[in-house]
Amino acid sequence: MKTILNELTAYLEDQPLARERKNKDRAIVNLLLRNYPGIARACELGVTSKEEVTNFVKEHNSYDRGWRKVTGDRPDLRGKDYDEKAELEDRKLEELGNGGSAR
Questions:
Q1: Sequence-ordered list of residues with C-beta below 8 angstroms from that of 14, at least 6 positions apart, any chain
Q2: 3-state secondary structure the chain
């Protein structure tokens, strides 16, 4: 079964330069482009570039970290489903046969 962790491990084993912290975002973009051929094709055609996609990924990561910080500091800004995460994770673990709560 192909998982993100297996994919990352294989990529890092195969691409030593990707192991450098400064190359992490570009390496992730390379992996994502394998899964999103339309975006890869847009890069090939010059509609966008790997650099632009890499900048998009970096900015997404920054927004995601900020989002978690703001909603962690301000519970009033969380959605109704925020507190359902633990229950959903437990249900999924049970479905997968892993016996429920990981906490």
A1: none
A2: CCCHHHHHHHHHHHCHHHHCHHHHHHHHHHHHHHHCHHHHHHHHHCCCCHHHHHHHHHHHHHHHHHHHHHHHHCHHHCCCCHHHHHHHHHHHHHHCCCCCCCC
> For 42-86, how does the pLDDT look when each residue is reduced to its tens digit (9 = 90+)?
999 999 999 999 999 999 999 999 999 999 999 999 888 887 877
Please identify which residue in the block is written with the tokens 């990352």. 8
Two tokens at 93? 């673990």
- Going from N- to C-terminal start, the domains of the chain cover 4-95
